[in-house]
Amino acid sequence: MFKTFLKNNHISMYKLAADSGVPYSTLNDLANHKLPVESLKSGQLFALSQSLNMSMNEVYALCLYTRQIHSEKYNTYASISIKHKTYFLSFEKNGNTYEDEIIPVKQEATKVIEELAKWKLEEHLSKLTMEAAYETIYAKTKR
What we know:
Layout: H1 2-8, H2 13-20, H3 24-31, H4 42-52, H5 56-63, E1 66-71, E2 76-83, E3 86-93, E4 96-104, H6 107-142
Antiparallel strand pairs: 1-2, 2-3, 3-4
Helix pairs in contact: 4-5
């Protein structure tokens, strides 16, 4: 969203770097999801908020990468986020929370991340469904 915001508001990263004092390389990595917003120093976040005339919370939300996906087959929602230059999938099922690494953040991965995440989600849910079925069968045979 950060990159889109800058583009839609005709703000170049070079100008923002000069106005805020935040290095261009940091802004570029932030815009291309190579640097999570959590890695910014509070002073950098404050400088960006001043330059963009936004609150620090608004800048944080603008730079935070999260996407929601849904498996219709299993009626389950999941989140895609970035940690340590890697896309992660997280979801809850039957009171348990699951998190898994999807793929490193790269330009080609960014184009298809939602499809990859949905495939990974359905793979996990399929395994959980099979494990539950095996447990049910095993419990019945133990009686």
